[in-house]
Amino acid sequence: MEYTPQLTTQQILCCSCGTLIPPNPTNMCVNCIRNQVDITEGIPKHATICFCRNCERYLQPPALWVPCQLESRELLALCLKKLKGLNKVRLVDAGFIWTEPHSKRIKLKLTIQKEVFASTILQQIFEVEFVVSHQQCDDCAKVMAQNTWKAMVQVRQKVDHKRTFLYLEQLIIKHSAHKDTINIKECRDGLDFYYASRSHALKMVEFLQAVTPLRSKASEQLISTDIHSGTSNYKFSYSVELIPICKDDLICLPSKIAKSLGNISPLVTCYRVGNSVHVLDPNTLATAEVSNQVYWRTPFSSLASVKGMAEYYVLDVEPCGPVKGKFVLADIQVAKTSDFGRNDITYFARSHLGGILNPGDHVLGYDIASSNFNNDAFDALHRGSLPDVILIKKSYPAHRRRNRQRNWQLRQLAKEEEEMAPRKQDQERIEQDYELFLRDLEEDPELRATVNLYKSDKAKQQPTPDVAMDDDEEEEEEEDFPEVSLDELLDNLTLDDGAQEYDSDGNEMMME
Predict the structure, then answer these.
(1) How many angstroms separate the CA atoms of 186 and 127, rounded?
(2) Phi first, then psi: what are they for 200, rounded to 5°?
(3) SS in 3 state form for 59-99?
(4) CA distances (Å), origin 405, targets 193, 427, 485
(5) Helix (H) or strand (E) holding 442
(6) Mind listing the pLDDT tens digit for each residue in 224-260?
(7) How many angstroms separate the CA atoms of 247 and 271, rounded?
(8) Which ranges are annotated Acidic residues under compositional bias (predicted)?
(9) What burial letters (b/e) apply to 156-169, b meaning 16+ CB within 10 Å?
């Protein structure tokens, strides 16, 4: 006997398959409606999305590149905008289906609704697959191409060493002032910074003004002009000249400037360079500050730099009494280290180093008596009133002979070197300047506090057979040498260490 379904007032038979269903305007079950009507028709199931591997951004048509993380809301919205016909249905739910990050595939699971017949709404779930296609964005294309920079900052200093730029490089790294540069090129007298925007170049000039006295000059070059829209394309260049005076330099101030600074002695030394030049009279401990405006109104140069210093042996130290901060005035008897065994010539010098020097120490200074300076301000001084020697800083020669492995290191900027390789003597001079800069960091805690030092690799901390030390060398090491403690070192990570922003109105930074 054939079974006949019992109909009730709440159920009817489907007109296509005869299944019992609740009454609806179509008199059809859901499966039969889906077989006849596809609400996903017109919505693509496969699409392509463009991705730039250099800056890790996705293309949002027509020409906007936006950064998005995988399975983020921003990436989901970007993918949904790529689907044509999605505006003709009602989107109920959308989400990601997990795929391998390196598979270059992004899958979405979409739930949509649409009214197919009168008062009949059909809901359907389907998947859409996006293929990630690599495409270089316009910004990265400009960076990779040549001569596409919009602004350039040329930093120069007219000195015979690189110590200033070595210190400036560490300041730039610490405060992340180079994050907007598209290229950094090293030249003979300084550095060139290239930018894609003029505002980024102006930001670098402001940073340099906050850390050292300088003067800058701006220029522009017309590249092209659109006569229809009235717009022009320019390239901007900013020439920055750093003050040619460095820490520990010997200076002879012009008489006019010396009188304006409290009638300080013209023959002074530079003990610090920040927003201005700080000078010291070693005979009286008098200090003065030469501002940026005052210097460039009457520029002057150094009599001698650190490369012109001679090494002396301390024979006697007699404090004179006056103390000003870390400076202690004392009469010091010294003899040239190179004169030992040749003559018995000694010198008496009044110096500010009375607090750190003891008999038997070594000290670096300028030999005024036997030097010949080509300077009009120095020639106007009375030679009989000038000291024979001006002492600058303590030296550690015995430690330097055996100090080869440091437990710390510095980071460096990714610079593009000159096309022509430096000569052998120039390369040796560069290495010598870098070694002197490292020694200055070790010996000067105040200077060391303004830069970031990083822990070196464990392999570098172990002495190699080539620099093995014997017992005689170990006995010559100075006991008071200022070693860099591990508390001052940062872990040498590959990511940025979250450098703080530099406040130009805050603490003054020292310039090497």
Answers:
(1) 53
(2) -70, -35
(3) EECCCEEEECCCCCHHHHHHHHHCCCCHHHCEEEEEEEECC
(4) 33, 21, 14
(5) helix 424-443
(6) 777 777 888 889 999 999 999 999 999 999 999 999 9
(7) 5
(8) 468-490, 498-512
(9) bbebebbbbbbbbb
Place of tokens 């000003």: 324
- Reading the block at residue 178, the tokens are 């180079």
Closest CA to 165 of 141, 195, 137, 186: 186
Strand order in the sheet with 310-324: 347-351, 327-336, 310-324, 362-367, 389-395
Residue 52 Cα to chain centre, angstroms: 25
Helix, strand, or coil (residue 288): strand
Domain ranges of the chain: 37-136, 146-223+232-242, 246-395, 405-412+428-463+476-491
Q: Tokens in use for 370?
A: 């036997």
Contact 363, 390 (CB under 8 A): no
How far apart CA 458 and CA 447 sit, in angstroms, is 25
pLDDT digits (tens, 9 = 90+) for 439-474: 888 888 888 888 888 887 643 444 444 434 444 444
Average pLDDT score over residue span 16-33: 73
Question: Strand 277-281 vs strand 267-273: parallel, antiparallel, or unpaired?
Answer: antiparallel
Question: Considering only CA atoms, which of 212, 203, 199, 201 is closest in space to residue 171?
Answer: 212
Which CATH number is 37-136 given?
3.10.450
DSSP run (H or E) holding 302: strand 302-304
Instruction: For the chain, report the end-to-end CA distance as a whole number of angstroms.
Output: 107
Q: Is the dihedral of CA 335, 354, 291, 381 positive or negative?
A: negative
